[in-house]
Amino acid sequence: MPPLDRNSYINRKQVATVLLQGICDSEYKFINIFSGWPGSAHDAHVFKNSPVGEQLISNSLNLFPRDMHILGDCAYPLLYCLMTPCRDNGHLTREQRYFNYKLSSSRIVMEQSFGKLFGRFRRIRFLDVYDKTKCAKFITTCVCLHNICMDRSDEWSNHEAYTSNSISNDKDTCSDVINNKNSGKIKRDAICQYFDNFIF
Question: Are 36 and 133 in contact (CB under 8 A)?
């Protein structure tokens, strides 16, 4: 890394990294990515500055119908079209705990998508690239090739399990950090109430 940029690319584990934000479908394909931000940046900040984040924050209905949303972990903001876990303050209701369980279970597809990507292109983990624009292009190219492989059922079975250890799960940065939080909370509460019909 160039000397002036190096510190901003050092993550909390003291490793120089470039972030990859991704949205995946149920077939382990990436339908949206945003790559190239320094590893020291918080996921919520990267999301806020990404094209998809800007659109979801300003007018999410341009991207999704009213009854649809994407799933994120607690590092992301709670928005009408981005559902995140209920913040665990030790007083979650039964419905909220069930909501968190179902959200986490569904997000396994995301973890597996990253696992397949990193398993297929192991070099992504240890790039020897000093030009940050080339680094982002390399990662984007790997994601495109991954999608082509998935389309052709070219499965990579020896992928390592991906875990989001690099994501900060600090409770004070969870969920309600960016505007639109009220509409997202209302929608999440309605989903929790709906789950009440299925919990025995």
Answer: yes
